[in-house]
Amino acid sequence: MKKKVVGLGEVLWDVLPDRTCLGGAPANFAYVTTLMGDQGIVASRVGEDSQGLEALRRMEELGLNIDHVQTDPQHPTGTVKVDLDGKGQARFEIAHPVAWDSLEWTRDWQDLAETVDAVCFGSLAQRSEESRTTVRRFLKATSPGAVKIFDVNLRQSYFSPEVLSESMRLADIVKLNDEELPKIMGLHGFPYKDELSSAQRLVGAFDLKLVCITRGGRGSLLVRGRDSSEHPGFQVRVADTVGSGDAFTAGLVHEYLQGASLALMNEVANLVGAWVASEVGAMPSPKRGALENSLAEIR
User: Fold this and answer.
1) pLDDT band at 289 (very low <50, low <70, confident <90, very high)
2) Among 28, 41, 73, 159, whose CB has the most other CB atoms within 10 angstroms?
3) pLDDT tens digits, residue range 233-270?
4) Could you report the per-residue pLDDT of 21-54, keeping only the tens digit for each?
5) Which domain does 150 fall in, by range?
6) Has residue 175 been placed in a domain?
7) pTM over 0.90
8) What share of the chain is helix, strand, coil (3-state, %, to 5)?
9) How far apart are CA 10 and CA 124, in angstroms?
10) Strand pairing partners for 92?
């Protein structure tokens, strides 16, 4: 049975040196969630401009549910200038203010929140007070059994210790990368010794069910209570890394909702993340069942 999974937050256009691609962590996450066989829903806001109309058209074309994407008559659709280094690693320059800085709490979103199986949210979409308030209302309106995933994304100066702490308190799962982990520990006054002990400290401090630390092309570490799982990652020829972390999160959440073991969650998440990194853009189309066949091989 398909799970109802929401990507809550920013939808935007990634403006790369040679192309412009639809993106934003929640949209990327919802897209791969749909590929995994669940119902990926985007809860965001775009402008009533040509870029907003094209974003809606493109998401619908990709099979995403856009019934809960708001439109904004005053603010433009979000854009991010993306620069890639020689290894395909991305750096971001994020426009501000834009439509997703004005996420509005509506009856439609309340009804959606009450029926979801999982919702993934980040720190970037909470950079404005209005959107931050809406994100928190959405999370608090979910049912007790809904899984809440906080995907940390420390972009530019768009975060604070308060936002990070409150987000982790509201979450069941926290996912962050190995560069963000020492910063998170320091911002909360926790000593940083190593990844495992730090993740265990976060689990205890914020009553989390799972902490995931990604290591780029070197795999990931999952920590649940005193149990842990490490995965070395899959070696692929990287096209660009835009969206690969969001794909990882989608794979992780899909398996978590199925009650998978830590090892299987780690394997699937790394596989899906590596696949997106090997393709151009954050929402590539699977070629000849490549993703499905790869997933079938590890089950």
Assistant:
1) low
2) 28
3) 999 998 878 889 999 999 999 999 999 999 999 999 99
4) 899 999 999 999 999 999 999 999 999 999 999 9
5) 4-284
6) yes
7) yes
8) 40, 25, 35
9) 8
10) 82
Q: Is residue 299 in some structural domain?
A: no
Comparing C-alpha atoms, which of 248, 199, 254 is closest to residue 228? Answer: 199
Angle between helices 161-170 and 129-141 in degrees, nearest 10: 10
Q: Count Cβ atoms below 10 Å from residue 76 Cβ, excluding itself.
A: 17
Q: What are the C-alpha distances in Å from 251 to residues 4, 108, 178, 207, 248?
A: 14, 27, 19, 23, 5
Contacts of 255 (CB under 8 A, 6+ apart): 264, 265, 268, 269
Assign residue 265 the CATH number of its domain: 3.40.1190.20
Tokens of 32: 């791969």
Helix (H) or strand (E) holding 252: helix 244-257
Rounded to the nearest 10°, the torsion over CA 90, 91, 94, 100 is: 40
User: How is residue 180 written in tokens?
Assistant: 């963000």
Number of domains observed in the structure of the chain: 1
Domain presence at residue 291? no
